Amino acid sequence: MAETLLSYAEAAEEICRYIGQLPSPAVTEAVSLLDVAGRVLAQEIRADRDQPPFPRSTRDGFACRAADANTYQPLHVAGQVRAGEIASSKARPGEAWEIMTGAPVPDGLDAVFMVEHSERIGNTVRMREPRQIAEGENIVPAGAEARTGELVIPRGTRLEAQHIALAAQCGYPELTVFRMPVVAILSSGDELVAVAETPALSQIRNSNSPMLAALVASAGGQPLILPVVRDEEAAVDAALASAFHQHPDLLLLTGGISAGRFDFSRGGLERAGARILFAGVAMQPGKPVVVGEVPLPQSGRMVPFLALPGNPISSAATFHLFAAPVLAALGGNTAAVPRFAAAHYASEWRGKPGLTRFLPARCDFSLNPQVELVPWHGSGDLAAYARSNCLLVLPSDCEELHPGSEVSILLTA
Ligand SMILES: Nc1nc2c(c(=O)[nH]1)N[C@H]1C(S)=C(S)[C@@H](COP(=O)(O)OP(=O)(O)OC[C@H]3O[C@@H](n4cnc5c(N)ncnc54)[C@H](O)[C@@H]3O)O[C@H]1N2
Ligand code: MOO
Known about the structure:
The structure is a single chain. It is built from eight helices and 28 strands. By secondary structure, the protein is α/β, with parallel strands linked by helices. A hairpin with a 6-residue loop joins strand 24 (about 355-365) and strand 25. Helix 5 crosses helix 6 (about 265-270). The radius of gyration is 29 Å and the shape is elongated. The chain starts with 7 loop residues before the first helix and ends with a strand. The protein binds ligand LQZAQKY5 and molybdate ion (MOO). Ligand LQZAQKY5 binds next to helix 4 and helix 7.
């Protein structure tokens, strides 16, 4: 049956719409701050006090009144404030206080000049000429970063190191996070043998299941690799039934979805009552990808599925583009999108227009990223894919690239 292919942009929009109507995950757990990297926040993080709680010096030097320092008159050094201390008395006009980075600026003073810009004479100090200092220089005012009670990390945020640091600063030794979605992985193909087995000449090892398990884990899911499915209708039905038994939050299938005589995955999904969101996208690799949802027989709960093309690079590309955002949303993070970046192409390329392409490429990721395609033998060439570190995006109307052409890349790590 010939179906109209969606463009990549249309498919991405469908995914976005689908994510928008998914319910927020119900199950949460408390996890130590030391173990939350990559998890999705199920609570709000609010500042427990003004940040900084006091006017904070950002330099080692002398706290003063800018107006006093700018006269270059020697200022009496009235005391010292180290980080963790409060000045022992209120500062008076004409005074300077020796101060360390991170220490509270004494009341009454409004600037800090750096020790490198000072001249110490006995118990006085003056700022070196011709330097001038402005009020507020080298001081972060109390509450400038966040006010007591202010929302600093919203629910649904995927927790990276910067969020963990801020949660620590706000006094959260543990956080409530969403349970990680369970992702059932079903690879199909009579030619597949397990990694530890020695394949016959016509057989290949199942590389998609471990690859997808790694992708699922890095996208915030719990992978559940199920046994390889044979290319028979009955085997597909049985494999789906046992996958449903595991109550997965998401189902990833690979292989058996194109036009071949033994491609049974889609039929199995349809027999199980699947609603198809889209089938086929005008892209390469990944054209045969099918996305939809299927009811769990026990509860009728609809479980999203993505039937990814069996070719390994097609599976990987469609995972990054379509599966990762759905998985993130099921885990409570509805803001996840494929990550694209700008780069310049490093050499010449000519090709046929028609499909949006996502081709294995190597980017140097320097200040001015330069990217080049990795030569490949099509979407089964894992050796080429392993030499890549991104996918170069070629819009459907792109026919040539030159050194310096502006291009987009899809980040795959
Ligand atoms: N007549 C047509 N043939 C094909 C079309 C088409 O439109 N018309 N589409 C091609 C495209 S594009 C792709 S991609 C593949 C996708 O096919 P399937 O999803 O049905 O996948 P399979 O046929 O089962 O396998 C394709 C390829 O990938 C290898 N494979 C499969 N599973 C794994 C695995 N778990 N680990 C490693 N490698 C795997 C398999 O051996 C095949 O070489 O169809 C094209 N054909
Ligand atoms: O997804 Mo297919 O690569 O276009 O072989």
